[in-house]
Protein backbone atom coordinates (compact mmCIF):
# COMPACT_ATOMS: atom_id res chain seq x y z
CA UNK A 1 0.00 0.00 0.00
CA UNK A 2 1.23 3.45 -0.93
CA UNK A 3 1.01 5.90 1.98
CA UNK A 4 2.28 8.96 0.16
CA UNK A 5 0.91 12.43 0.79
CA UNK A 6 -1.18 14.16 -1.89
CA UNK A 7 -2.93 17.53 -1.93
CA UNK A 8 -6.21 18.76 -3.34
CA UNK A 9 -8.17 21.98 -3.72
CA UNK A 10 -11.87 22.60 -4.38
CA UNK A 11 -12.82 24.87 -7.25
CA UNK A 12 -15.68 27.16 -6.27
CA UNK A 13 -18.07 29.34 -8.22
CA UNK A 14 -18.54 32.64 -6.37
CA UNK A 15 -21.54 34.38 -7.91
CA UNK A 16 -21.20 37.54 -5.81
CA UNK A 17 -17.99 38.59 -4.11
CA UNK A 18 -19.92 40.83 -1.72
CA UNK A 19 -22.18 38.02 -0.47
CA UNK A 20 -19.43 35.40 -0.34
CA UNK A 21 -21.83 32.69 -1.52
CA UNK A 22 -20.02 29.83 -3.23
CA UNK A 23 -20.81 26.44 -4.77
CA UNK A 24 -18.23 23.75 -5.51
CA UNK A 25 -17.78 23.07 -9.22
CA UNK A 26 -14.62 20.97 -9.33
CA UNK A 27 -11.74 19.40 -7.43
CA UNK A 28 -8.04 19.45 -8.35
CA UNK A 29 -5.59 16.81 -7.09
CA UNK A 30 -1.79 16.91 -7.03
CA UNK A 31 0.03 13.60 -6.60
CA UNK A 32 3.78 14.45 -6.31
CA UNK A 33 5.01 10.89 -5.97
CA UNK A 34 3.09 9.76 -9.04
CA UNK A 35 3.84 13.04 -10.88
CA UNK A 36 0.20 13.54 -11.74
CA UNK A 37 -2.34 16.35 -11.59
CA UNK A 38 -5.99 15.27 -11.84
CA UNK A 39 -9.08 17.44 -12.20
CA UNK A 40 -12.70 16.29 -11.82
CA UNK A 41 -15.85 18.36 -12.37
CA UNK A 42 -19.56 17.57 -12.84
CA UNK A 43 -20.79 17.07 -16.39
CA UNK A 44 -23.93 19.02 -15.53
CA UNK A 45 -24.15 22.35 -13.74
CA UNK A 46 -27.86 22.21 -12.93
CA UNK A 47 -27.25 23.20 -9.32
CA UNK A 48 -25.78 26.52 -10.45
CA UNK A 49 -28.39 27.23 -13.12
CA UNK A 50 -31.14 26.61 -10.57
CA UNK A 51 -29.48 28.82 -7.99
CA UNK A 52 -28.58 31.78 -10.22
CA UNK A 53 -30.83 33.21 -12.92
CA UNK A 54 -28.03 34.98 -14.81
CA UNK A 55 -25.54 32.11 -14.55
CA UNK A 56 -23.47 31.65 -17.75
CA UNK A 57 -23.23 27.86 -17.99
CA UNK A 58 -21.33 27.74 -21.28
CA UNK A 59 -18.62 30.07 -19.97
CA UNK A 60 -18.05 28.09 -16.77
CA UNK A 61 -17.99 24.83 -18.72
CA UNK A 62 -15.36 26.33 -21.03
CA UNK A 63 -13.19 27.19 -18.02
CA UNK A 64 -13.65 23.71 -16.54
CA UNK A 65 -12.57 22.17 -19.84
CA UNK A 66 -9.50 24.42 -19.87
CA UNK A 67 -8.55 23.42 -16.32
CA UNK A 68 -8.84 19.74 -17.18
CA UNK A 69 -6.63 20.22 -20.23
CA UNK A 70 -4.07 22.12 -18.14
CA UNK A 71 -3.99 19.30 -15.57
CA UNK A 72 -3.26 16.84 -18.36
CA UNK A 73 -0.54 19.13 -19.73
CA UNK A 74 1.18 19.43 -16.33
CA UNK A 75 1.05 15.67 -15.85
CA UNK A 76 2.50 15.04 -19.30
CA UNK A 77 5.34 17.55 -18.85
CA UNK A 78 5.81 17.16 -15.10
CA UNK A 79 9.53 17.91 -15.18
CA UNK A 80 8.89 21.35 -16.69
CA UNK A 81 6.39 22.35 -14.01
CA UNK A 82 7.48 20.41 -10.93
CA UNK A 83 9.76 22.98 -9.30
CA UNK A 84 7.23 25.84 -9.48
CA UNK A 85 4.33 23.59 -8.59
CA UNK A 86 5.89 22.02 -5.52
CA UNK A 87 7.50 25.20 -4.18
CA UNK A 88 4.17 27.07 -3.91
CA UNK A 89 1.16 25.02 -4.95
CA UNK A 90 -1.47 27.69 -4.31
CA UNK A 91 0.36 30.35 -6.33
CA UNK A 92 0.99 27.88 -9.15
CA UNK A 93 -2.67 26.84 -9.27
CA UNK A 94 -3.92 30.43 -9.33
CA UNK A 95 -1.43 31.38 -12.04
CA UNK A 96 -1.65 28.35 -14.30
CA UNK A 97 -5.21 27.08 -13.96
CA UNK A 98 -7.42 30.20 -13.88
CA UNK A 99 -7.70 32.58 -16.80
CA UNK A 100 -7.98 36.31 -16.16
CA UNK A 101 -11.68 36.38 -17.12
CA UNK A 102 -12.53 33.51 -14.74
CA UNK A 103 -13.31 36.02 -11.98
CA UNK A 104 -16.16 33.98 -10.51
CA UNK A 105 -13.99 30.87 -10.06
CA UNK A 106 -11.72 30.47 -7.05
CA UNK A 107 -9.71 27.56 -5.69
CA UNK A 108 -9.96 26.85 -1.97
CA UNK A 109 -7.06 26.46 0.42
CA UNK A 110 -4.77 23.49 -0.20
CA UNK A 111 -5.85 20.38 1.69
CA UNK A 112 -3.72 17.34 2.47
CA UNK A 113 -4.60 13.67 2.11
CA UNK A 114 -2.85 10.33 2.32
CA UNK A 115 -2.78 7.80 -0.53
CA UNK A 116 -4.28 4.57 0.76
CA UNK A 117 -4.02 2.86 -2.63
CA UNK A 118 -1.66 2.76 -5.57
CA UNK A 119 -4.64 3.44 -7.83
CA UNK A 120 -4.74 7.25 -7.72
CA UNK A 121 -7.62 7.31 -10.22
CA UNK A 122 -9.73 5.34 -7.79
CA UNK A 123 -8.64 7.57 -4.92
CA UNK A 124 -9.47 10.77 -6.81
CA UNK A 125 -12.86 9.35 -7.74
CA UNK A 126 -13.65 8.51 -4.11
CA UNK A 127 -12.89 12.09 -3.06
CA UNK A 128 -14.93 13.43 -5.96
CA UNK A 129 -17.87 11.25 -4.92
CA UNK A 130 -17.55 12.54 -1.37
CA UNK A 131 -17.96 16.16 -2.46
CA UNK A 132 -20.10 15.74 -5.58
CA UNK A 133 -21.91 12.44 -5.09
CA UNK A 134 -25.38 14.00 -5.23
CA UNK A 135 -24.46 16.87 -7.56
CA UNK A 136 -26.06 15.50 -10.69
CA UNK A 137 -28.97 13.77 -8.98
CA UNK A 138 -31.22 16.64 -9.99
CA UNK A 139 -34.97 16.62 -10.39
CA UNK A 140 -35.92 15.57 -13.94
CA UNK A 141 -36.59 18.72 -15.92
CA UNK A 142 -40.02 17.61 -17.10
CA UNK A 143 -41.16 17.13 -13.51
CA UNK A 144 -39.70 20.28 -12.06
CA UNK A 145 -42.09 23.04 -11.04
CA UNK A 146 -39.96 25.90 -12.30
CA UNK A 147 -40.79 29.58 -12.90
CA UNK A 148 -42.34 28.88 -16.30
CA UNK A 149 -44.58 26.21 -14.78
CA UNK A 150 -45.80 28.56 -12.01
CA UNK A 151 -46.41 31.40 -14.45
CA UNK A 152 -48.41 29.21 -16.84
CA UNK A 153 -50.45 27.77 -13.98
CA UNK A 154 -51.51 31.26 -12.88
CA UNK A 155 -52.25 32.42 -16.41
CA UNK A 156 -54.38 29.37 -17.24
CA UNK A 157 -56.29 29.79 -14.00
CA UNK A 158 -57.06 33.45 -14.75
CA UNK A 159 -58.13 32.81 -18.35
CA UNK A 160 -60.35 29.92 -17.27
CA UNK A 161 -62.22 32.34 -15.02
CA UNK A 162 -62.39 35.33 -17.38
CA UNK A 163 -60.80 35.77 -20.81
CA UNK A 164 -61.62 39.47 -20.64
CA UNK A 165 -59.12 39.95 -17.83
CA UNK A 166 -56.17 39.09 -20.08
CA UNK A 167 -56.15 42.55 -21.66
CA UNK A 168 -55.59 44.09 -18.22
CA UNK A 169 -52.57 41.93 -17.47
CA UNK A 170 -49.26 43.50 -18.42
CA UNK A 171 -46.56 40.97 -19.30
CA UNK A 172 -42.76 41.07 -18.92
CA UNK A 173 -42.73 44.26 -16.89
CA UNK A 174 -39.29 45.75 -16.23
CA UNK A 175 -38.85 47.89 -13.12
CA UNK A 176 -35.77 50.01 -12.53
CA UNK A 177 -34.51 51.22 -9.17
CA UNK A 178 -31.35 53.19 -8.38
CA UNK A 179 -29.56 49.91 -7.58
CA UNK A 180 -30.87 47.30 -10.03
CA UNK A 181 -33.32 46.40 -12.77
CA UNK A 182 -35.78 43.56 -12.19
CA UNK A 183 -38.19 41.85 -14.57
CA UNK A 184 -41.64 40.70 -13.44
CA UNK A 185 -43.81 38.19 -15.25
CA UNK A 186 -47.06 40.14 -14.91
CA UNK A 187 -48.43 43.36 -13.49
CA UNK A 188 -52.01 44.20 -12.61
CA UNK A 189 -53.71 47.16 -10.97
CA UNK A 190 -56.22 47.79 -8.23
CA UNK A 191 -55.45 50.38 -5.55
CA UNK A 192 -51.80 49.33 -6.02
CA UNK A 193 -49.67 48.18 -8.88
CA UNK A 194 -49.12 44.44 -8.30
CA UNK A 195 -45.86 43.09 -9.72
CA UNK A 196 -46.01 39.30 -10.06
CA UNK A 197 -42.79 37.30 -9.82
CA UNK A 198 -42.68 33.47 -10.02
CA UNK A 199 -40.02 31.95 -7.78
CA UNK A 200 -39.39 28.21 -7.94
CA UNK A 201 -37.91 26.59 -4.87
CA UNK A 202 -38.33 23.16 -6.43
CA UNK A 203 -34.59 22.60 -6.21
CA UNK A 204 -32.43 19.62 -5.38
CA UNK A 205 -30.44 20.85 -2.39
CA UNK A 206 -30.90 22.76 0.85
CA UNK A 207 -28.00 24.96 -0.17
CA UNK A 208 -29.68 25.93 -3.43
CA UNK A 209 -32.97 26.79 -1.71
CA UNK A 210 -31.27 28.93 0.92
CA UNK A 211 -29.16 30.79 -1.64
CA UNK A 212 -32.09 31.48 -3.95
CA UNK A 213 -34.22 32.79 -1.08
CA UNK A 214 -31.39 35.00 0.18
CA UNK A 215 -30.68 36.36 -3.30
CA UNK A 216 -34.31 37.28 -3.93
CA UNK A 217 -34.55 38.81 -0.46
CA UNK A 218 -31.79 41.15 -1.56
CA UNK A 219 -33.47 41.95 -4.89
CA UNK A 220 -36.79 42.86 -3.27
CA UNK A 221 -35.20 44.79 -0.42
CA UNK A 222 -33.29 46.92 -2.94
CA UNK A 223 -36.61 47.63 -4.69
CA UNK A 224 -38.30 48.87 -1.53
CA UNK A 225 -37.72 52.59 -2.07
CA UNK A 226 -38.99 52.39 -5.64
CA UNK A 227 -42.01 50.38 -4.46
CA UNK A 228 -42.89 53.05 -1.93
CA UNK A 229 -42.48 55.88 -4.43
CA UNK A 230 -44.69 54.23 -7.06
CA UNK A 231 -47.10 52.33 -4.81
CA UNK A 232 -45.92 48.91 -5.96
CA UNK A 233 -46.52 45.67 -4.13
CA UNK A 234 -44.72 42.43 -4.98
CA UNK A 235 -46.75 39.24 -5.41
CA UNK A 236 -44.32 36.30 -5.20
CA UNK A 237 -45.56 32.94 -6.54
CA UNK A 238 -43.63 30.07 -4.98
CA UNK A 239 -43.43 26.33 -5.66
CA UNK A 240 -42.11 23.98 -3.00
CA UNK A 241 -39.47 21.25 -3.47
CA UNK A 242 -40.56 17.88 -4.85
CA UNK A 243 -38.38 16.13 -2.25
CA UNK A 244 -40.15 16.03 1.12
CA UNK A 245 -36.78 15.93 2.88
CA UNK A 246 -36.29 19.55 1.74
CA UNK A 247 -39.57 20.84 3.19
CA UNK A 248 -37.83 22.21 6.34
CA UNK A 249 -35.46 24.21 4.10
CA UNK A 250 -38.45 25.44 2.12
CA UNK A 251 -40.17 26.65 5.29
CA UNK A 252 -37.01 28.52 6.29
CA UNK A 253 -36.90 30.10 2.83
CA UNK A 254 -40.51 31.25 3.21
CA UNK A 255 -39.62 32.94 6.50
CA UNK A 256 -36.70 34.68 4.81
CA UNK A 257 -38.95 36.01 2.04
CA UNK A 258 -41.69 36.99 4.49
CA UNK A 259 -39.14 39.15 6.30
CA UNK A 260 -38.29 41.29 3.27
CA UNK A 261 -38.82 44.93 4.33
CA UNK A 262 -41.18 45.92 1.51
CA UNK A 263 -44.82 45.61 0.48
CA UNK A 264 -45.30 42.04 -0.71
CA UNK A 265 -47.49 38.98 -0.67
CA UNK A 266 -46.25 35.38 -0.69
CA UNK A 267 -48.49 33.04 -2.70
CA UNK A 268 -47.67 29.34 -2.50
CA UNK A 269 -48.54 27.07 -5.40
CA UNK A 270 -51.54 25.64 -3.55
CA UNK A 271 -52.92 29.19 -3.25
CA UNK A 272 -52.73 30.09 -6.94
CA UNK A 273 -56.41 29.36 -7.59
CA UNK A 274 -57.41 31.63 -4.73
CA UNK A 275 -54.99 34.29 -5.95
CA UNK A 276 -56.35 34.14 -9.52
CA UNK A 277 -59.86 34.66 -8.08
CA UNK A 278 -58.57 37.79 -6.36
CA UNK A 279 -57.01 39.11 -9.58
CA UNK A 280 -60.18 38.59 -11.60
CA UNK A 281 -62.40 40.17 -8.97
CA UNK A 282 -60.12 43.15 -8.39
CA UNK A 283 -59.59 43.88 -12.08
CA UNK A 284 -63.33 43.66 -12.74
CA UNK A 285 -63.94 46.17 -9.94
CA UNK A 286 -61.30 48.58 -11.30
CA UNK A 287 -62.47 48.50 -14.91
Automatic annotation (TrEMBL):
The record's InterPro entries line, in alphabetical order, gives: DUF3037
**Name listed for the protein in its UniProt record:** DUF3037 domain-containing protein
Amino acid sequence: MNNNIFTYSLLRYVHSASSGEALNVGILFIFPEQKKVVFHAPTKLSRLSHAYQNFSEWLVKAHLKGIKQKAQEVSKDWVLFADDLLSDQRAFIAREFLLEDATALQFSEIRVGVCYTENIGELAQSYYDLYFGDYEEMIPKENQRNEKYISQKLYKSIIAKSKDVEQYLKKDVVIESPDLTLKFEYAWQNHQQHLVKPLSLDLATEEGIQEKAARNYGYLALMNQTAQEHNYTFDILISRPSAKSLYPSYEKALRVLESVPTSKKIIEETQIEQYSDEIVQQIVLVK
